[in-house]
Amino acid sequence: MHFDHAGIATDDAQSLAQLYADLFGLEIAHEEEFDGLRVIFLECGAGYFELLEPLEEGTIARYLENQGSGIHHLALETADLEGALDTARDHGVTLIDEEPRPGAWGHSVAFLHPSDTGGILIELVEH
């Protein structure tokens, strides 16, 4: 596995993308509307910043209401998502997703509960 992206919750993905482009020289690698979100991926070295702007009520909208803008999750890429979920189960980690599900950019994803991962919501991604 290796680092894939940091998911960042924001009220305005386009403005934040422009700020990161201006500040850090990052470029947009991918944009889409998915699952009630505007999602923008910015290339950042060996990974991405994934900007998540809610377009309707849902998990990210609730996160913004409760926590404000900021890092929502960290994502690790795996070549075997089901195997990674089995490993997490074997280590007693609570799974938010028992099975892989569709994610942004057409990838398969599953999330691990932060109560068992040091307080960090971890997304596993299979490209």
Task: Give your account of this protein's structure.
By secondary structure, the chain is α+β, with helices and mostly antiparallel strands. The chain has a single domain, classed as 2,3-Dihydroxybiphenyl 1,2-Dioxygenase, domain 1. Helices cover 24% and strands 40% of the residues. It has helices spanning 13-24, 59-67, 81-90, and strands at 2-9, 28-34, 37-44, 47-54, 70-77, 101-102, 108-112, 122-126. The chain has an eight-stranded mixed β-sheet with strand order 2-3-4-1-5-8-7-6. The radius of gyration is 14 Å and the shape is globular. It starts with a strand and ends with a strand. The relative contact order is 0.20.
Our Rg estimate from Cα atoms comes to: 14 Å
Quaternary organization? single chain
CATH fold name, please?
2,3-Dihydroxybiphenyl 1,2-Dioxygenase, domain 1
**Could you give the order of the helices and strands?**
EHEEEHEHEEE
Number of strands: 8
Which CATH class? Alpha Beta
Estimate the global geometry from the Cα principal axes.
globular
**Percent of sequence in beta strands:** 35-45%
Helix content: 10-25%
Task: Provide the spatial order of strands within the biggest beta sheet.
Answer: 2-3-4-1-5-8-7-6
CATH architecture title: Roll
Q: What is the first-to-last residue Cα distance?
A: 12 Å
